[in-house]
Amino acid sequence: MKPDQVNSINQSIIASWRSPRDLTCTALALVFGLAIGWLDLYVTEVMVTILVLLAVGLLIGFLQPLAAWRWGVLIVVGQPIMVVVVNITGLHTAEPAQLDIRIVLVALVFTMLGSYIGVLLRYALRGLTRRSRQKVKHGGFSTS
Fold first, then answer.
1. What local confidence, expressed as pLDDT, does residue 102 receive?
2. Is 35 a member of any domain?
């Protein structure tokens, strides 16, 4: 890649972080991440946490598909933060609160999976709506 292309990509990524939708999704990812971290400490069933990670990743990936990897990272950050908060405050949890990097990495995998499924759904729906608009525009007949 040429330096001009790299600068253009970097500027578009920086500009995208300033959009209202992006800031909203960032706030949602952080709030949902903290909520999932709390849920993980108080629910003993792992499948509940995994399903919520997938669902939240899917939702935020669908809402803002640009650079979907960051939603996975922002959501998963809530788990270690909540473990630290519980250890500092001494709150009672369902199981002892331990910070384990393996658990965070597994959570990251499921969150990223959900996030990219959300991106794929967004693009699939966008393609379907474009085709249906074209059919309506051309009298219901496909132009292909």
1. 93
2. yes
